[in-house]
Specification:
By secondary structure, this protein is of the alpha/beta class. The protein contains 14 helices and 25 strands. It has a nine-stranded mixed β-sheet with strand order 2-1-10-9-11-12-13-14-15, with helices on both faces. A four-stranded parallel β-sheet has the order 4-3-5-6, sandwiched between helices. Strands 16-17-19-20 form a four-stranded antiparallel β-sheet. A hairpin with a 3-residue loop joins β23 and β24. The structure holds adenosine monophosphate (AMP). Residues 148-149, 262-265, 284, 286-289, 311, 368, 370, 382, 385 line the site of adenosine monophosphate (AMP).
Length: 489
């Protein structure tokens, strides 16, 4: 089976029902099948060959989705670029992926052999053959390249295959979204280039509409969720925090059945508030680019007050283990690295054999770089990224736990905790926070004192106007650390 088969079948089964909605523009399932055939044929006519990489720089919208799945039909490898990144970052990815073509809206970030402006797309589609475009590839051949966030080092591309894509769809349908129906509606408020994109196919195959919002704001989200009676959505924790800051959220007339969230740790205070305001609709997913959005999930009914710090249980068809540094499999309560295995995991890092060998064991187990433990009921608890753990006076401090304590202070909206080199302790804990009203650093630190052991308490706390974030809204601790180290030098 190919991804294109899912699109073709949905076209036949759901015909004139709305598949994609963006403002006034509505594309039916049959039209989506035809548009992607036509554009696929146009790409082949431009000389692109199976396996060629095509970088795509398009904002959230119908055209971007059509391009993505036209590439699938033409056997081409999608390299999504994030519109919030700089031309310099795009150029790096275009070069690293050896893209032969670039499809772009606005200004192109680099020159490659085949340049296609978004303005040309309607003409290309209109002039192209409407024959079925069906270039079939091996299930283990690259389907798309996903660049990892780049929170450490230079971004690496994760190679995902048709096999991993199909498994990702299956994982979602079995565990996260088991109740999709033709009247379900997915609201894409986050960039489709990232996490939200994984929700497109599961909805499409069940005949549900995908609604696209160009740019997230709490107001735009609420307006679209009410108008289209959205039943599912995906947000990173920062977006949930923003939504809860908006007073209109509490009185909005929503039909959400699943508010899926993940991609970064969520503060328990935000999650509890979310459940209080929006109801028992929260479903957490823990995954990463290397194991797309499926390692563990925490179901809505598992969001009990004592369990809000958990990342959930393994997806049905995903294996998860915790191992120590010698590779021994650990039991409940013991802290180690999370490893995972399943058909959805990456095939390799693109052109990085050493990084691949460090990350994937010969028997398929993938090192996630996350530190965690199991509790007695089989729930995974994540402590932090292996590289972010602070070692102060020989004790491990997990920044996330300290950030959680800071975020429980009523004034604190965002927090980033890092380790600063210290002659005596090796590293000392330092924090940057953003506040919603004026508060003194000493007062915030005093508030956290009974929640944190002495060695975990920040030695310094700064109030910043904003915490630097990656284009997908994850806080960039490395940048916070660099700034603090520079300031203390
Ligand atoms: P990325 O590959 O950029 O999607 O980042 C994946 C990383 O984000 C994971 O390895 C985790 O460190 C973190 N992450 C993803 N989902 C969660 C979650 N539900 N809870 C805590 N951390 C998460």
């Amino acid at each position: 089976m190919q991804i294109a088969d899912l699109i073709r079948r949905a076209g036949r089964q759901f015909g004139s029902a709305p598949a994609l909605i963006d403002g006034d523009r509505v594309v039916s399932f049959a039209e989506f099948d035809e548009l992607t055939d036509r554009l696929g044929n146009a790409l082949v006519a431009r000389g692109l060959e199976p396996g060629d990489r095509v970088a795509v720089l398009m904002p959230n919208g119908i055209d971007g989705v059509v391009v993505y799945y036209a590439l699938a039909k033409a056997g081409l490898v999608r390299v999504p670029l994030n519109v919030r990144e700089t031309p310099h970052e795009h150029a790096y990815k275009i070069d690293d992926s050896q893209a032969r073509a670039l499809v772009y809206a606005g200004e192109p970030s680099a020159q490659v052999e085949i340049m296609i402006s978004a303005d040309e797309l309607p003409g290309l589609i209109a002039d192209a053959s409407a024959d079925v475009c069906d270039i079939r590839r091996d299930q283990d051949a690259p389907f798309r390249l996903a660049y990892t966030g780049g929170t450490t080092g230079r971004p690496k591309a994760v190679v995902l295959t048709t096999r991993s894509e199909l498994a990702e769809v299956a994982n979602f349908l079995v565990d996260l979204l088991p109740n999709l129906r033709p009247d379900s509606v997915m609201l894409h408020a986050a960039p489709i280039t990232h996490g939200s994109g994984a929700f497109f196919l599961p909805h499409l195959v069940k005949g549900a509409a995908n609604v696209v919002v160009q740019k997230f704001s709490p107001q735009a989200f609420l307006a679209a969720a009410e108008k289209y009676r959205a039943t599912s959505t995906f947000m990173v924790p920062t977006m949930i925090a923003m939504l809860l800051e908006e007073p209109a959220t509490a009185t909005a007339d929503l039909s959400l059945e699943r508010l899926c969230y993940g991609g970064a740790p969520i503060a328990t205070s935000v999650l509890q508030r979310g459940i209080d305001v929006l109801g028992p609709v929260f479903a957490q997913l823990y995954g990463q680019a290397e194991a797309p959005l499926a390692i563990t999930c925490l179901q809505p009914w598992e969001h009990t007050p004592d369990r809000l710090t958990a990342a959930g249980k393994p997806y049905t068809f995903v294996e998860v283990q915790i191992r120590d540094t010698e590779g021994n499999v650990l039991s409940n309560g013991e802290v180690g690295e999370v490893l995972t295995r399943g058909p959805h995991t990456m095939n390799r890092y693109w052109r990085r054999p050493e990084a691949t060998a460090e990350t994937i064991e010969p028997d398929g187990w993938l090192h996630t770089g996350d530190i965690g433990h199991w509790d007695a009921d089989g729930y995974l608890h994540l402590l932090d990224r292996r590289h972010d753990v602070i070692i102060s006076g020989g004790f491990n401090v997990y920044p996330r736990e300290v950030e959680d304590a800071l975020l429980s202070h009523p004034a604190v909206v965002e927090a980033a905790v890092v380790g600063i080199p210290d002659e005596k302790w090796g590293e000392r804990v330092a924090a940057a926070v953003v506040t919603r009203f004026a508060a003194e650093p000493e007062e915030i630190l005093g508030f956290c004192a009974d929640r944190l052991a002495g060695f975990k308490r920040p030695r310094a706390l700064e109030i910043w106007p904003a915490i630097p974030t990656s284009p997908v809204g994850k806080s960039l601790r490395r940048e916070v650390r660099d700034r603090m180290v520079a300031a203390s030098a």
